[in-house]
Amino acid sequence: MTRAAIDTSLFEAAEAVRAKAYAPYSGFQVGAALLADDGRIYAGCNVENAAYPVGNCAEPSAIAAMLAGGGKRIERIYVTGPGVLPVTPCGGCRQRIREFAAPDTPVICHGVDGEPLYTTLGELLPHSFGPDHLVR
Ligand code: THU
User: Fold this and answer.
1) pLDDT, tens digit, for every residue of 88-115?
2) Contact 13, 61 (CB under 8 A)
3) What number does the ligand 1 atom closest to the CA of 47 have?
4) Structurally, how many domains does the chain consist of?
């Protein structure tokens, strides 16, 4: 499959799951779809909560789906949300992605009324702390 075809599949998966996002408080529905090392696409949406701080973002939902499905590493991740601005992962999600991805892992951020931003985890989270730091 070409990279463009993969990105189309990731976009479609992110948009399909975004429609199911539970975001009654912000109204900001987010979808994340990732290509894992097992060649499969895993997706997740944000899940808000009446106790606002315990809501979670779309990215950890996609990561949980990956692990549950047998994937171990993120090869590429696509995030979609409303509006024109690229929906970039929040700071906490950058660190969550970091756990399962390399600095050169592509992260595509898309506000669906605008153009996608193609970046990498390393650009979003330079000089990051990760599992390697804990190897003794
Ligand atoms: N959100 C995500 O799902 N991912 C991000 O990286 C940015 C923010 C969600 C959290 C909350 O449910 C809504 O977007 C508004 O912040």
Assistant:
1) 999 999 999 999 999 999 999 999 999 9
2) no
3) 12
4) 1
77 domain-assigned: yes
Provide the strand spans (E) within 2-83. 31-36, 41-45, 74-81
How close is the Cα of 42 to the center of ligand 1, in Å?
A: 18
At position 84, the amino acid (one-letter code) is V
Domain at 123, CATH number = 3.40.140.10
Contact between 32 and 14 under an 8 Å Cβ cutoff? The reply is yes
Ligand 1 atom showing the smallest separation from residue 25 Cα: 12
Q: Quick check: is 99 catalytic?
A: no
Going by alpha carbons, the residue nearest to atom 13 of ligand 1 is 28
Task: Inform me whether the pLDDT recorded for 136 exceeds 90.
Answer: no
Residue 97 falls inside a structural domain: no
Q: How far, in Å, is the centroid of ligand 1 from the Cα of 1?
A: 30
